Amino acid sequence: MSTLVESRLGLTSAEVRELRERFVPNGLHVGTPVVVARASGAEVFDPEGHRYIDFVAGIGALNLGHQHPDVIAAVRDQLDRYAHVSAQVVSYEPYVRLAEQLDRIYPRIDGSTIATRSVFANSGAEAVENAIKIARVATGREWIIAFQNSFHGRTYTAMTATGKTKNSRMAFMRSTTPSVAHVPYPYPYRPIADVGEEQLADLHVRLFDQVLETNLAPEHVAAVIVEPVQGEGGFVVPPARFLKRIAAICRRHGILFIADEIQTGMGRTGRMFAIEHSGVTPDLLVTSKSLGAGFPIGAVTGRADLFDALGPGSLGSTFGGHPVACAAAIRTIEVIERDGLLDRAMRIGDALRARFDDMAKRHEAIGDVRGLGAMQAIELVQDRKTKKPASALVDATIRTACERGLLLLRAGLFSNVIRTLVPLTISDAQLDEGLDILDGALTTTGGGGFR
Questions:
Q1: Among 28, 422, 425, 441, which is disulfide-ready with 401 (CB 3.0 to 4.6 Å)?
Q2: Strands 284-287 and 298-303, bridge-based pairing
Q3: Which of 132, 137, 121 is nearest to 257 (CA)?
Q4: Which domains, ranges and CATH numbers included, belong to the chain?
């Protein structure tokens, strides 16, 4: 017989970890042993009062940092009005105003005047699922082309589109959805041929074209889905002209171009959306994470005619476009524009790149420094010539940095990349302090000094 236990706040870190071990499955991996009791800006604190600088920001969901006062005020105001009604039952202002704002900031390149519509879901993975559904219905085609080393989510179609078997798909390989093909994504640090970046772009474009000439008929392909910068894949930035040329091929064949901006969007790369760096107007745009500033929301925004191909009731979600999350998202866009956070992202990126370049001169394990705007990373290797991944060193460095008060997260095909997703509201002093801790952790764990 179950016993009613009085709930209470204020558990110790050890008590929370014990409860997690007892009641939460191991399949939900946790990257650090830290337990959070409160957070503000770029800092989190555990129940015992230990402070940590946050270079993870909820896996990129907190570009405005923890508890941004303007977002919290918008959320409280919405809670005073109503918490939930469902967009499938009634209409409400936060939903339609957010759709209006996403239309206003949509990445229209070269004078594009396309009209857009938006539908909201609960997460990035759900938004990916909906984007693929919309693409298939609107085109009357079935196949989706995704890229190797990509990550699009953990629901079935999003997981199938993900171009990494470990750890995302390994346990579910017999259950992935059909009609999704993967093509190589250019990885300048680990190229498939010993060529320069521009030649690498040309090579990958030819490979993409070859897939359409051999494996798939273009008439069967509904859409291409791509991250403008691969997030979980290790912050891999493709050569500048690659995505524009892929988009041109899509246009030629009537294939839709879906930009997955779940991790790259909302100012992370110094533009509202990373696809803007490539000069591409997407047909569909998928956003989540920092769109809600910590509140769960996913969005598919894109050409109105694509949405109009779907009949009433084709799309929907009980909680999708939750009024509180929409209110947070509307205020997020306002704060990014009002406070100049796109320029701030570029300044943060410059500071990160300068420090990482300096570290690379002193730490032999740093094989590559890369990124776009405030989306910067270092790839650790055992040997710079062979580029053999140093995954264990990454784990040790993250663990040591955590012990010294810095939260970091790994990424990459071989889990050998340390990525930075610092809040765009972080102070220069906090940024420098965090980088000092990372630098020292690399020295302690064996990443420093040349043999």
A1: 441
A2: antiparallel
A3: 132
A4: 13-60+340-445 (3.90.1150.10), 72-338 (3.40.640.10)
